[in-house]
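lol ok so funny story. i was supposed to be doing the assay writeup but got distracted and ended up predicting the structure for this chain instead. priorities right. anyway since i did it might as well share w the group, maybe its usefull for someone
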Amino acid sequence: MAFRGILSSLLVTYYYVWLLMGLAYRRKCLRIERRLRNRERRMENLNELIRESDRKCISELHMDRRTFFILCEMLRDVGGLKATRNMTLEEIVAHFLYTLAHHLKNRTIGRFFFRSGETVSRQFNLCLLAVLKLQHLLLKTPDPIPENSTDNTWKNFKVNT
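and the output, tada:
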């Protein structure tokens, strides 16, 4: 009689362990499926932004596709920006430009591109550093206005000392 009680408790424990292992496996499979689904959505969003049409690219990133890819090349070659294991260079630059174009927060950008806020922030900072390395190529130094300028738009800005 005691043997049957021990055997039945072992059997229940055995089934319980198998149930827990099955639930853990199912949870792991769901995580993998979610990760793959997010990767698909991410690529769809990126393709819509930079590969479908110039109109969409201009409205969302404020530059056409040709200019976008030239900027990506410049950031890679001169700025030293590199793709990571999980993000392409185009995606990093698209995040950066989308953030600047729409003045959005990391959390909002992360939801749109299916990334975490930390990832968006880290890649934004790396892209910003690469853009700052390009300042001598991208930014024009202003010419001072001469004292004898005849243009009336500048007369209000003259400093009287």
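The longest helix spans residues 2-52. Residues 44-137 form one domain.
back to the writeup now i swear
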